[in-house]
Amino acid sequence: MAEYDLTRTIIPYLDRHLVFPLLTHLHENGLFAPEQVAAAQYELAKGTNMVDYIVSLYEQLNPDSEVPEEFAAKREKAVAINEQLQQEAQAVLDVIENPDVAQALRQDKNQNLTYLKDNYGLTLEQITALYNFGKFQYTYGNYSGAADYLYHFRVLSTDTDLNTSAHWGKLASDILTGKWDVALEELNTLRETLDARAGSTPLASSATPSHAEPLATLHSRAWLVHWSLFVYFNHPAGRTLLLETFLAPAYLYTIQSAAPWVLRYVAVAAVLSRRVQAGNAAAAAPISSRVRHAIREVVKVVQLEEYQYSDPVTKFLKELYVEFDFEAAQRELQLAERVVGNDFFLSEIREEFLDNARYLISEAYCRIHQRIDIADLSARLNLSPDEGEKWIVNLIRDTRMAADAKIDLEKNVIEIHRPALPIYQSVIEKTRGLSIRTQAVGAALSRTGQQQLAQPVQEQSAIVEGAR
Amino acid sequence: MSRFFRQAADSDSESSDSEESLLSSDEDESQSKPAAPAKPAMSRFLRTAHTSDSSTSDSESEDEDDDESEDDGVAHKESKPKSRFLRDSDEEESDEEVKRVVKSARDKRLEEMEATGRAIDNALKINDWITISSEYDKMTRMVQRQQNFAEPVPPFYIRTLISLETALNMALAKEKEAKKKMNASNARALTAMKQRVRKTVKEYEKEIRQYNERLNNEYATLAVPQAQGKPEVARRSVAAEGEDEEDFTRVGKGGKATQYTSEGIYKTLQAIQEARGKKNTDRADQIRILERLLDVAVTPYQRIRVLLALVSSRFDYNASIASYMPTEMWLSAQREIDCLIGILVENDSYSVQEITDDYDDLIERTPEGEKDGVVRLRGSIVSFVDRLDDEFTRSLQHMDPHGTEYMDRLKDEKGLYCTICRAETLYEKKHLHEPLARVVTRRLEHIYSKPDVVLTALESAVAAANVPISLSLASQASPSALIHTLCVHLYKSGNSVLRTRAMLSHIYHHALQNDFYTARDMLLMSHLQETVYSMDVGTQILYNRTVVQLGLCAFRSGLIKEAQSTLQDIFATQRVKELLAQGVHQPRFQTLTPEQEKAEKHRQLPFHMHINTELLEAAFLVSSMLVEIPMLASIDLEEQKRKAISKPFRRLLDFADRQVFTGPPESTRDHIMQASKALQHGQWEQCRDLIQDIKIWSLMPEVTSVKEMLAKRIQEEGLRTYLFTFAPHYKTLSLLFLERTFSLDRRAVNSIVSRMIWAEELPASLDQSAGVIVFHRVELSRPQQLAQILAEKVGAMVEQNEKALDVRLGGATVWGDRADGLKGDKRGEQAQERRRGRGERRGGVSARGARGGRGARFAQGLGSQMTKTR
Fold it and tell me: Among B486, B410, B402, B474, which residue's Cα sits nearest to residue B448?
């Protein structure tokens, strides 16, 4: 199974601290030799300021030898820097925590800065101390503290580069402290910042495109994709959001060109999206078309990128929806189940995945076949005949097939009678939404007429989204 | 004797000599200026002196001796005082000829001409003007031929002209005195001759004058030195003569240094440079002078200077764009560039740059004399290399690609490639990035379209020539790696045109290596589709070639749909050859101006780089067949049938349908059309045989695998077509029967049928226990059908509206997010864009692709309406 493990591929796209949980997971699932993993952990930790942790790892690795001196020195140095940075930061913090100041602060950062400077003598350099201290705290593992300081910094600072950097730091801190709601929020703002930056330099307009710009965008998006996996697979609504984000053209391109292995997670999320739909349909929460057709989209991409990346999960989708080879799909599913179980992000949702995958198989099977042998279907689903029967009954009850499918226990078959879609219904289906779409066009047109293309972008897309 | 003849001859000489006469008239003007002739005259003398020394070929000189003695005899009898000069000049000139003679055919021509000359002389003696006239005609023709071969007019001809002129004058004078002596026809011939000779003399005025001048000079040498008006010339010629007489050896063994001091070299160089580009300069002559200067040049500085001048005058030699540089000339230019690069590589202290400080042309410069120890000279090696390469291409364009000459010429590519590599090392050493990038592009362009074997051969030639190049095949693992490194080098360069070309060449190479996915991804990521139509024509051609090669690559890899959609664009224009620069397009309604035609011809690719269009067409049509036939079978409404995926294919198919009688297939198209029909009727075996019989497949490198792939595709598509076509006639259909009929295994049949059911292409379902397909077909009534069509149309209209809005807002991504981010769709859009771009470029609305084109036009129409309403 080790060949399907993505840890190694993913690590280059992660922050040093984010890798720790991955390695711990590897340690637990035993795919690799424990010594190797421990060694990797030690190497990883050496780059941080978490001296105590390093020492404990060292002792674990070399139980017999003495702990080298350098760690003590490093520790002292770290503490000293900490002191110093804290003092610097404290000065700023004192000012900010003053309730008067908090009240006086406005939305406009420049104004805030002048206000702080005039009244309290705070300069930009001093504010940068917040950033430095937050960053340092992060290096020795005080993530929540880091998150706080970085947050404050970001509110005040006008330096875009450092701000983005603080964004990343805050996101990492939130992820590591496990505050998924906050992390999700952070992730969204970060994504917007990145997109805005990419959008400000459109490819078409720059006659002499500097190589660095699109490449930088690609890199940061690839990073974001990897980091967001932490959030999406831990946040309750994460999978839907994952599909929403990753199937957006910009991120889909990123995945296709820079990180095709992420397709595994997209595929899993797509498989899982069925349940989400069922749950959400009752709550009448709006699901974008992207999520609704997630499977179809993902299958297309999987097919396109097959030459670059394939693993049991993607192969499962391909066998099922491209080749319609149910036996092969079944085989791949077995493998995929283990892969999912071993994956750091997916191990929690193995059962769910299996359930949904089975459902997908049986749905496809039922749609294509008219008369199905229950025993045969059970074998397809890797279930015993009894279990299979129960499963199928549930399936029929749950879904819209209820009207069409009947179980004939005597012959032990399911009969599916799918009446052809009445013609009027297909016409309705086709013309549905036409008027709304037309209205959207009209609205967009009149808006451009009024605003002379001032800022049509966001509003129109909002309209279209609303129309849908 | 005939006015006809005369006229014919006249017009002949006129037409062929028109250029010459232009030249000579110009020369008249310039000769009237006093300063100009002095220098060339001097150098001319020097030259003749040396050539007569250096001519060593015994047999030829013997030949001439014979001729001379005969000539002598004649001349002596005719007019005593002239004879010496005649012989003398004859000797000189023929020597000169000997020096230049390379082919024996040329000797023969000269001999022939001399024979004619003798005949004229003889006829003169007996006053037979009829014979003279006919012989003269012959001679003129020969001279013309001579000129056609780009050889100079032989002096011998001039001499005959002069003697004819004098004889004519004499004869006319006699005529006046004694009218009765001549018969009528003879007299007519005499007058005709008079006119003709007068005309020709006018044309060759310059040569005649030069000739006379030389005679005069020789007079001067013989007679008292200060004799005639031009003391300077006379003195120099004495010097030349004196040297000539003194001995041969002294000149040969470097005694020239005494005469050609370094100062002398620079003076001559300057003179040549001043004369350069003027109409009356004899380019061949200049080259000869420079060649000899090169022999005397000693210091590197001198050699570089002379080489720079020599190479540029070699390129000047052929002024017209219509023809190409003679091969020998090209070869020596190549050698000289090599030599020049060699000198520069060896001597670090010399550098040739396009922009330098001003320096005195007339003094010797050494590294020690310069500030930073580097002598900088004005010149550009990279443009020499460029020019050399261009001339090579041009010569290939002009040759018959099926002749041996072409093959021989192609062999020179090795040398050229070596030269390019040498230049690369030079620039690498000097760290000049801009010219280095240009040279690397040249190198890349020589290898990108070549199969590995040829590439390896070229590289080994470079290795054999001992070029110490850093990026050689030996240092890289494979040819692809070499191309990769070259391209990466170019990507880093600042020049965006070179970058684009490198990108396209890289993609082309990937496609050639059957690496479809990499090539496609690179093409899509480069975003060239959007910008290519604003680029220069050469890049557009390269782009077209790349796209076509990508299509072929997809075809070879069995990706039929991709192949079809890639090749579609270029075939929809119906001008494949033109777009690939493999043939000139003849527009139907207007004619091209000569300039356009010339430009068009100029950019044609040499034959060895062509992509076989017949193979291309076969690949396109076969993939269209595999895509289109099942689609045709799947739709049963007349209305929808008009929509075609591939218009060219559909047109052919309709044409084939209308044929009353079909014979056995002959052309590739016939094969494919009959195969399509067989496929339509479900006879996949026949279809397969027909397709596999196409002969042109043998041009593909992997014939057998391609054929197997095609057979498999035909089986599958045959099954699909069969199901589509005959589904209405069945209620159930056994899977076993399908397996047997299409000799596919169970899994494949199941997979295909399931896919069709899933995609709702086939209203049916599988009954697993009975192993049959059960069809649920619903017949639609007419109103129902119409309602459905209507609904579809309304949907399409809304879509068009949205597209129109997209266009108005500029860019598909701005408004809403309907671009669902799939490469396939993206390509469709881009292809459409490209097609539009091409239409604009050619300045006419060409046949646009089916839906895209209509959509675009529709969108444009709407756009204008919207602007009106606002």
Answer: B486
